[in-house]
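step: validate -> pass
step: tokenize input -> pass
step: predict -> running
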Amino acid sequence: MAALPVAFVVAALMGLVLERGVIRFLYGRPLETLLATWGVSLILRQLVRSANWALLIGIVLFSLLFFGGWWLLARQGNWPRIKGTAIAILLGLSLGISALAGFLVGGSGDLGKPWFSTRNVDVTAPAWLRGGLPIGTFQLPYARLFIITLTVLCLLGTYWFLNRSAWGLRIRAVTQNRSMSACLGIATAKVDALTFALGSGLAGIAGVAISLLGSVGPNTGQNYIVDTFMVVVVGGVGNLLGTVVAALIIGILNYLIGSGVLALMLVSLKAPQSFIDLFTFFATTSMAKVMVFALIIVFLQLKPAGIFPQKGRGVEI
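step: predict -> pass
step: emit ->
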């Protein structure tokens, strides 16, 4: 249980650093924002694969040299005039020294050995989450019941925060009309940072939940990226209820098609053989995703804004 609050805090802090360091410079440019976050995810995955003491020493040394030198030079009176040249020199020297130090340290024994590597790691669930709840001839695993309960609690907490707290009101106001919110005195920059940190914290909790379903590794989250995008687009951007409904619909469709249940239902209903053959062909996990994705494309042609589109003047801004 201690992993849940720790994961939320650590992920929220990482999200806050990412928002302050990268995302805030890209607001209003959704494509660049998407590419930047995707690039950061690739960097983090590779960092997990190759993280060791040598790399950590190199990063810390680079940060001390670059940002420390920046801070010292910024106190000089002629800093605005030499800023460009000074940053270029600082960057080159810091990179060279830190890379050399990391190379020298990495060649000495265990300091160059990766902490995690690319292998997946099995997570042992607590004793009270092992086993399952028998219901007739079926058994519902306690781990999955815990994940469902955790999801419901996170949804209720997010709903309460967005609709009952002062900062939730500010978030909704900035989302609907940023310019008017700024004119009314709302610190939009703080709202942006808080929103990104909250989303990152919830992602950290989701990571803990995913670890109960199987082994985890650097590429674990990659399996869920496409599904999460589809859920947000189908449900309607900015709508919490739409996200829940879309997740249920997409999840149920994936199961019915991928497990072959839908094909068996068509057989029992004496449907045309062409339909039965079609759904039998897609009765695998990977092919089911292809069919669901095709169905979503067709759906978006009819309702481009999703199941619950945004309403009000903010949609036109």
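step: describe -> The CA atoms of residues 56 and 66 lie 15 Å apart.
step: cleanup -> pass
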